[in-house]
Structure formats: structure tokens, C-alpha cells
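User: Quick sanity check before I run a bigger batch. Here is a single chain. Can you write out its predicted 3D structure?
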Amino acid sequence: MQRLLLPMTCRLLLTVTLAAVTAACSTQAKVCEQCGRAECRNLSFDVRHQDGTVVQTCCPRCALHYLAGAHPPVASLAVRDFDTAGRIDATLAFYVEGSEVAPCTASAGSPPRDERGCCMKTVYDRCLPSLLAFGSSAKAETFARQHGGTIRTFADLQSEIH
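Assistant: Done. Predicted structure follows.
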């Protein structure tokens, strides 16, 4: 009986392990519907339309561009807290704009330079300057002290794009 129990236990453990690995490997990062970048869970922004459809963007900055360009009929706006990845009402969040932390950028490194050190090409990134959301003003202030940037509200940001 014991000789049968050990192989069965090993098979069960192997099956559970393979199932976990398969589940982990089959999940792919979501891609921003606006700029095509992979979404970071701690940055994503959801625009829920009145008809129930949802547009998910890679970051708050990309969402602001979408809202300014499309002017969709919005039912709700949700953003991820950069610190915890928890969903929060985007209109109540506190944002740090332009900090040294810019996880949602298109290019790694700086553009090429000529022999004088001048930038050889203009680079535009719709997700810059960085815009990170926090659920409390205290967390946003602490982050801004450590990494620079300006604390903004959603109303401030939205008034600039209209």
C-alpha cells in the first residue's frame, strides 16, 4: 500500500505544479489600446463609458490624451494606486507629475547625439511627463519629496487638456 501511495503523491504534486506553471506562463501582459505599450498593473487607468465598455490605458497620462481626443461619454474613471496597485476613483486621486520615476516610457536611454553633444532627433512620448496616482495626499507628498515632481489633482490635469 505504501509503495502505491508514494507514486500517487508524486503524480499529484507534479500535476499541481504543472498546472500552476501553465497558468503563470499563459498570462500575457495587457496592451494599452491607445499607444500599444504593455500595461503596468500599478499604472493602468480605466475609462468606463456610459454604455458599459471600458478603455484601459497604460498610465494616467495616456488616459488624459484619450479623454481629450475622444471626448467619450464617461460613466466612471478608475486608476491604480502606484504604491499598492489598488483601484481608486481617478477623480479623487492625488497625482505626482514629472518625477524622476517614469516607468511608462517608449524609449530606453537617451536619443543619439552628434559630435557636439546635441540631440540628433526629436523624441515625443505621449506618456511623459510621468503621472503617478496615489490614494492619499500624504503618500503623494512623501513620494514627491523622495523623487521630485509636482502634486496635482485630476481637476487640475483635466483643465489643462480642455
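Strands lie at 45-49, 54-57, 74-80, 87-89, 94-97, 131-134, 150-153.

User: Great, the batch can go ahead then.
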